[in-house]
Amino acid sequence: MSIRILIADDHAVFRSGLRVLLEKEADLEVVGETGNGFDTIRVATDTDLDVLLLDVTMPGLPGSKVAETVLKSKPKLAIVVLTMHEDEYYLQEFFRLGVRAYVLKKSTGTDVVQAIRAAHKGEQYIDPALAGLLISTYVGRQPKKEKTERLDLLTPRELEVLTHLAYGHTNAEIAEKLRISERTVETHRTNIMAKMEFKSRAELVRFAIDNGMLKLR
Q1: 110 pLDDT exceeds 60?
Q2: Which of 53, 63, 108, 155 is 20 to 30 Å from 28 at the Cα level?
Q3: Of the candidates 101, 59, 112, 108, the residue with the CA atom closest to the CA atom of residue 78
Q4: What pLDDT is attached to residue 120?
């Protein structure tokens, strides 16, 4: 069964291009488009869909209010934010509201599709470019002792995988770098999220930064 998607963005040309891009994928189906916050809430609430692809800046109501309102009526709906805003504030705010993915409009179509599929499976996804943004903002901070002690819960290999994830690498890229299978990477990732009680990739990135695991490249 196809993943049913609603595109919410105030630029009609962008919506049309995005629809063409998404419908090239056999498992994706665009079931509607909206151009303002109020219409998005109405259509998202009344339509049978799996993923809401949402812009941050929407006429009528901002994307954050749209997400909050829609999730109250459909708490299991996967929302993917697709935006031009490379701002940590928006990133944190949307994940706090329950959004599952945050992708930049300058990203590749592959990134957008990957985010949609991840969100549909109940996973969190953050645009790889934003990992660098967070690192540049917080690099140099002293690790907090109580958090550093939690590293003892992870095996050496899990620490490697955690670091690569925090830098924004995909499972396939990590598998190639560490010369292990993607299935093994996914197992390590699942174990890391469970052991460290991370609810999102944003928490994983912040943990890595706070513990001095990342350096500017």
Answers
A1: yes
A2: 63
A3: 101
A4: 95
CA 151 – CA 79 distance, rounded (Å): 31
- How far apart (Å, rounded) are the C-alpha atoms in residues 125 and 200? 8
Which residue carries 């592959």 as its tokens? 110
Domain 133-210 classification at class level: mainly alpha
For the residues of 26-80, what is the DSSP string, one character each? Answer: TTEEEEEEESSHHHHHHHHHHS--SEEEE-SS-SSS-HHHHHHHHHHH-TT-EEE
Integer-rounded Cα Rg, in Å, for the chain is 18
DSSP-derived letter for residue 121 is: T
pLDDT at site 62: 83
Q: Are 185 and 174 in contact (CB under 8 A)?
A: yes
The fold of 3-126 is Rossmann fold (3.40.50)
What ranges do the domains of the chain cover? Answer: 3-126, 133-210
pLDDT digits (tens, 9 = 90+) for 125-165: 888 777 655 544 444 444 444 455 678 889 999 999 998 88
pLDDT of res. 205: 74
Q: pTM above the 0.70 mark?
A: no
Whether pLDDT at 10 is above 70: yes
Residue 202 CA to residue 40 CA, distance in Å, equals 26
Q: Output the six-digit token pair for 148.
A: 């550093």
